[in-house]
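A reminder from the course coordinator: this example appears on the midterm review sheet, so study it carefully.

Given structure:
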């Protein structure tokens, strides 16, 4: 009585691949996710550019610079979709019920609902649901100055996915506008999310993410400017994540300290921000004894959790911009125009 089933299974033996279509968004972009376990950064690439400009052998993560072949960049959601659809196609020979499920899958995707987005705050990725208007406002569309590949990120990007181009000073300017754009969307988030706890928690993630991105944007830019100095010594990895260590390297290479560009109050504010980034990345924001000593921040005691405010992140974004301008001037580099954002 299983003859038909067995015949259908026999027929499936030769069938190895199933093509699954992943749909683009309204503007022709589609989702990608960094395969590095530590990163899992989500971004979008213009479909056309993915086909024509991105190589099959090497794609770069805009956030961490990790590279892998073009097959590795599926988002978790796309993988689930593909698995369901593939199963459905195979099962279709036996019964078409699951095929109907697959068709339903697309219809079940929220339209006009919330947009799921990955934000990295405490070194782990946190999935947040944002109203589409806010998600859109936070999205930074970038066109690579080197290869013109179009991609989109939330917050900050440091590398082009197609060519890996990292024009530090240009990417820096872009990252800072991305951070400010995210902060500008806070009012939208607050008004669109009915549950107040959820809204405030989402806003906290956006603000803390902004602080981390501001420090990281500075670090990547300072590293790149430093490396190109003819007088640069060897710097340990992440040296510019530490304000005093970066300052010492900079003086040694250029003779000019950070204090030539920022007042002592401004430097103290940055020092605190750099230490807070460290807490957010390593202790989930919980203050430790080291923080109390190094930050000079007497508002919190060990064991407490730091509170980061929007206005403060804006101030920090401005300070890292000021310091970066100073470093570019020290290095004898004129500021180049930022790559076009739409
Ligand atoms: Zn990555
Ligand atoms: Zn490029």
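Designed residues:
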């Amino acid at each position: 009585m299983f003859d038909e089933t067995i015949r259908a299974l026999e027929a499936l033996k030769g069938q190895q691949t199933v093509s699954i279509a992943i749909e683009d968004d309204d503007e022709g972009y589609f989702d990608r996710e960094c395969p590095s376990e530590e990163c899992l950064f989500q971004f979008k690439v213009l479909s056309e550019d993915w086909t024509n400009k991105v190589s099959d052998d090497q794609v770069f993560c805009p956030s961490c610079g990790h590279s892998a072949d073009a097959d590795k960049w599926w988002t978790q959601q796309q993988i689930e979709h593909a698995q369901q659809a593939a199963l459905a196609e195979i099962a279709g020979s036996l019964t078409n019920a699951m095929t109907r499920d697959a068709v339903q899958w697309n219809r079940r995707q929220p339209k006009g609902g919330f947009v799921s987005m990955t934000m990295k705050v405490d070194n782990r990725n946190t999935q947040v649901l944002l109203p589409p208007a806010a998600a859109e406002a936070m999205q930074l569309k970038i066109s690579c100055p080197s290869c013109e590949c179009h991609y989109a990120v939330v917050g900050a990007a440091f590398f082009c996915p197609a060519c890996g181009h990292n024009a530090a000073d240009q990417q820096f300017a872009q990252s800072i506008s991305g951070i400010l754009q995210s902060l500008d969307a806070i009012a939208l988030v607050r008004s669109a999310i009915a549950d107040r706890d959820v809204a405030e928690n989402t806003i906290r993630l956006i603000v803390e993410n902004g602080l981390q991105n501001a420090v990281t944007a500075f670090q990547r830019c300072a590293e790149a400017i430093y490396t190109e100095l003819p007088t640069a010594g060897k710097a340990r990895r992440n040296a510019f994540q530490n304000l005093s260590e970066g300052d010492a390297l900079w003086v040694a290479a250029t003779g000019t300290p950070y204090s030539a560009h920022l007042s002592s109050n401004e430097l103290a504010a940055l020092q605190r921000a750099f230490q807070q980034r460290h807490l957010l990345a390593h202790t989930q924001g919980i203050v430790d004894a080291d923080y109390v000593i190094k930050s000079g921040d007497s508002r919190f005691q060990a064991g407490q959790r730091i509170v980061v405010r929007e206005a403060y992140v804006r101030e920090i974004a401005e300070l890292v911009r000021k310091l970066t301008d100073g470093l570019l001037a020290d290095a004898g580099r004129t500021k180049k125009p930022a790559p076009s954002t739409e």
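Residues 144, 146-147, 149, 160, 162-163, 165 surround zinc ion (ligand 2) (CB under 6 Å). The first helix runs from residue 3 to 12.
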